[in-house]
Amino acid sequence: MNGIDRRQFVAGSLAAGTLAASGPAFAADALPKTYAGTTLNVLSRTSPPFDPTIKIGEEFTEATGIKLQVTRIAPSDHYAKLMLDWSSGTNSYDLSLFVYQWKNDLAPYLADLSSLATAVPGAPALDLDDYAPKVLDIYGRHEGKLVGLPILGDVAFLLYNTAAYATKGIEAKAPTSWDEVATRSKALTGDGNYGYALPAGKTPQCYVMWSLLYHAFGGTYVDANGVPDLGGEASVKALKFMAEQLQPSSPPGNLTWDYNEVLNSFSTGKSAHAIMWAGGLAALADPAKSQVAGKFAAASPPSGALLGGTSIGVNGKAKNPEAARLYVAWMTSKAIAKRNAENGLSPARLSLLDDPDLVKKYPHYPAVRAAFTGETFGYIPVKEAEQILLMVADEANAACAKTKTPEKAAADLQAKATQFMRRRGYIK
Q1: Which phi and psi angles does 222 have, rounded to 5°?
Q2: How far is CA 350 from CA 44, 134, 358, 359, in A?
Q3: How far apart are CA 200 and CA 404, in angstroms?
Q4: Of 379, 328, 374, which is closest to residue 353 (Cα–Cα)?
Q5: CA distances from 89 to 42, 97, 320 (A)
């Protein structure tokens, strides 16, 4: 992916505090009122990109009579809360957002949406051919079933503050290597400012950072026998780079950071570099929400495009399964996805990533589309991947906090991951 010039990035950007005025192509009065009076309990996230879905959900309620009870939770707590609720049989939530690395774990509890169009008369068309096949497969398919629909399409970008660059005489071009990122970060640290917003907490964004570096240093996640390879040279280098090259250029308190803290640190100009998902770029380009609007640029990380993203799925034991399916079909439909995109929710639909009006407002969309249809890499491809990734975050946190050497942290990570997978019966 090519870098995105800051003037291109903010061209046409508008404040995203209210829903865009364009009306939905799918008329609200076409939605069935069959399920009026029911309530859907939705588990969502506190991340700013999902703000538009809350406001627009009011229109769904008005049109259908279905009340939405939305619980928003921090990304770092989402997996544990959702898995506990569904695996225990409590089933407090009829539907939930989820990220693709949880798909294998959640699949036993997720309803198959393949027959949604016939099961729920009057539901908007799913238009599945509007997604890149790879994206739909990764985000939503499991063993022949459609267990989720993409709601947020994402890849990771490296952000750099061009205004901060100018103060140090650094040319406003994207770093071409992680060593260059580290060198620039050190030069930009001082006088209350920092070079890099490193998420070093025991959190998902920490394992995102490790995954990028692990891939850059030649890591392959698992060996030929499917055994995790997380303690070797690539892992040691990744942990060492985080602890010794990026941590010294990061703000105090970052040993507890996740996504929201990184977004805040970069948006306030406190940190000059950050890894950020496409879903967060709209807020950064909005002058009403960001102090760096017009003062930063985005490019593919030196290690390549890490695929992220979020799906929405229905609990197979939802109290109101048809109403839940109707909501999912409506929220991910082309018309509503476009309105959410106009207000900052990065789309997964190819037609929206090509939409001239949206591209004018969000010039990074072609880069997202290119990643979706080109070569990307993802997280470790094993069952219960989230459990393994949280072990990564624990050990990376220890290395950055200097409670373990990178070598010790990598060795402990390998031992924990291998023991976990053996105990679960995934390896012998």
Answers
A1: -130, 155
A2: 24, 12, 12, 12
A3: 14
A4: 374
A5: 16, 18, 16
Both structure tokens of 223: 């060996």
**Three-state DSSP string of 292-358:** CCCCEEEECCCCCCEEEEEEEEEECCCCCHHHHHHHHHHHCCHHHHHHHHHCCCCCCCHHHHCCHHH
Least confident of 103-112, 258-267, 369-378: 369-378
Are 351 and 338 within 8 A, CB to CB? no
Question: Crossing angle of helices 334-342/321-331, nearest 10°?
Answer: 60
Which helix (H) or strand (E) segment holds residue 75: the answer is helix 75-87
Burial of residue 225, with CB atoms counted within 10 A of its CB: 0-12 exposed, 13-18 middle, 19 or more buried: exposed
Quick check: 170 pLDDT over 90?
yes
pLDDT at 117: 85
* Residue 155, strand partner residues: 307
Q: What does the CA dihedral 362, 363, 369, 374 come to, rounded to 10 degrees? A: -150
User: How far, in Å, CA of 230 to CA of 333, rounded?
Assistant: 40
What is the fold of 16-153+308-373? Answer: D-Maltodextrin-Binding Protein; domain 2 (3.40.190)
Spatial contact of 235 and 396, defined as CB atoms under 8 Å apart: no
- Report pTM: 0.79
Enter the tokens of residue 186: 């050190």
Average pLDDT, the chain: 91
Nearest CA to 346 out of 324, 376, 372, 326 is that of 372
Amino acid at 103: K
Query: How would you classify residue 116: left for phi > 0, otherwise alpha for psi between -120 and 50, otherwise beta?
Result: alpha
**Pairwise CA distance, residues 124 & 4, whole Å:** 35
109-113 mean pLDDT: 98
Pairing of strands 296-299, 307-314: unpaired
The CA-to-CA distance between both ends of the chain, in Å, stands at: 40
- Whole-number Å distance between alpha carbons of 384 and 422: 12
Rounded to an integer, the average pLDDT of 41-47 is 96
Domain residue ranges of the chain, discontinuous segments joined by + = 16-153+308-373
